[in-house]
Amino acid sequence: MTAEKEKLLNETYQKILRIGFALEPTLDLREYFSEKLYIIGTTKDEMINTLEGLQRLIDRQKEQSAGLEISFTSKAVDRQYYSEDTMAVLTDEITAHILSKEYETSFDMRSSGLLKFEEDKWKLVYWHASKPENVQSEEDTFGINEWKEKNAQLERLVAERTSDLSKKNEELEATLDQLKATQTQLIHSEKMASLGELTAGIAHEIQNPLNFVNNFSEINRELLAEMNEAIAKKDYTEVEALAKDVTENEEKITHHGKRADAIVKGMLQHSRSSSAVKELTDINQLADEYLRLAYHGLRAKDKSFNATMNTSFDENVGKANVISQDIGRVILNLITNAFYAVNQRKQNPGGFLPTSGRLDQSNAPGSEKTPGDSAAYEPTVSLATKKEGNNIVITVTDNADGISPAILDKIFQPFFTTKPTGQGTGLGLSMSNDIVTKGHGGTLTVKTTEGTGTTFMITLPA
Amino acid sequence: MKILVVDDEQDVQVLFQQRFRKEIKSGEMQFDFAFSGEDAIKYLNEHQQEAVLILSDINMPGMSGLELLGHIKQKYFKPPPIVMMITAYGDAENYNMAKELGADDFLTKPVDFNLLKEKLKPISQ
């Protein structure tokens, strides 16, 4: 065969394969195919013996490959020529590639074609392709539909899972929102609970200065009346003495008025949400204020209760940059806990962490008392401040039963409480710890000895 | 008549001295002050039988007014002085306990000084 004829043969065969892969635009099939053609394809209906049938196959192929990028490579395996080079049998190994947006696939097949040379043209008479090994379908030449179906299945699966995930995500977000709301609510509850503890103390604390204000202003009215009498009598020595008393009383009125004012302001600060900013605060004054509030708060709730309060304020402590109502709340918490603990010991002598009879008032002074331990026991709560290097240390110490080692590591956990249900939120120490560490870059530590007592230590950077 | 006033509020001293200035001036009444239960017991030990009347706050740090009352009425001082209890919490529990412990009278804060004077008059005479 002449090189020219062989070249034409190969070019024609390539064109035929391109038509077979539906890669060619619509053209006159008679240019490349014999009217008496016979094609055995890879699927059961691919037995074509008319050009019309071939055209239908090509059209179907085009339809199936919409949106896909199809290409192929072929490698000649065998070439045989007969009848004075007018008949040629071509055997090729073909690799088809199918590429979509999502992924790609490829498969191998073997094709054999018989071409006949007529009127200076090579035309396909017979063609057969072995079915690609990885295609299951009997309907689909290259398994495109099957592959597409698999792809669609995958997409459905991905969509389902994505939908599941986003649903779960929404659920989680909703749960998180709920938890955040609950947390806010709990923090608020804890604030309100400690406000409740404060209220009685505050009422008492306000009552005393108000009594002084009322009394001294009443006395001044009397003194001024007496002063008028003295003026009438021209007894100016008496007038001077009375004026001195009036002035002194006036100072008392102002002093106690300011005292009540400070208490009310403190109360308002305490209930306010923590949008507060750090301010230079006199730590000793703050500690003393909250000690009094805690003491009177507990006295108001449990009238039989009493304890010795020891204070030791280091003058060097001075002022520190703190959110005063937050640190105040921590001090209040620790002192309230200490008072609760010594009260427990007084009422339940000889027992560690009693499980019943808490806040039982039957052991109140004056009523029947068992002799022994309880008589000797002096409930004592000590509050001390100290300047240590660059730190301010505030300690609250009680002489109660101490904390059992079994629960010591749990006391700072939220919701942990030894109080009977309904009496404690279990958030006091947890929130105190947060305020000191996260809010102020300090530490809150505990030292305890069973049967001897407990010391909580707040360390704040000065 | 010598009266011991026991209260942890120091300004109570000025208040009583002013409220009873006429009685003090006339020598009808004398006032001494203690600022805690412990101080009061110390005072009473040092001034046996001098004070005939004690006015004590109940709500004090350390020894409470009720404990002081118990001490005075049951343990040390014979014949015991008259003891009047004063409290900010005018509740039945405190009242009953004070009565049980032998309190002679019970007053609630804010103290009505006219009423107190009325109560003191028959004692001082």
Report what the structure shows.
By secondary structure, chain A is α+β, with helices and mostly antiparallel strands. Chain A contains 9 helices and 13 strands. A 6-stranded mixed sheet of chain A has the order 2-1-6-5-4-3. Chain A has a 5-stranded mixed sheet with strand order 8-10-11-13-12, with helices on one face. With 125 residues, chain B is an alpha/beta fold. Chain B has one domain: Rossmann fold, CATH 3.40.50.2300. Chain B has a 5-stranded parallel sheet, with helices on both faces. In chain B, helix 4 (65-76) links the parallel strand 3 and strand 4. The model of chain B has no long low-confidence stretch (mean pLDDT 86). The interface between A and B is medium-sized, with 29 and 26 residues.
Count of discrete alpha- or pi-helical segments spanning 4 or more residues of chain B? 6
Span between N and C termini of chain A? 104 Å
Distance between the termini of chain B: 9 Å
Mean pLDDT of chain A: 82
What characteristic shape of chain A results from the CA principal axes? Answer: rod-shaped
If classified by CATH, what would the architecture of chain B be?
3-Layer(aba) Sandwich
Radius of gyration of chain A: 49 Å
Backbone structural class of chain A: alpha+beta
Biggest sheet of chain B, in brief?
5 strands, parallel
User: pLDDT below 50 for ≥5 consecutive residues: which ranges of chain B?
Assistant: none
Name the CATH homologous superfamily of chain B: Response regulator
User: What is the CATH top level name of chain B?
Assistant: Alpha Beta
Query: Helix fraction of chain A?
Result: 40-55%
The 3D shape of chain B can be described as globular
Q: List the secondary-structure elements of chain B in sequence, H or E.
A: EHHEHEHEHEH
Sheet with most strands: strand arrangement of chain B: 2-1-3-4-5
Helix content of chain B: 40-55%
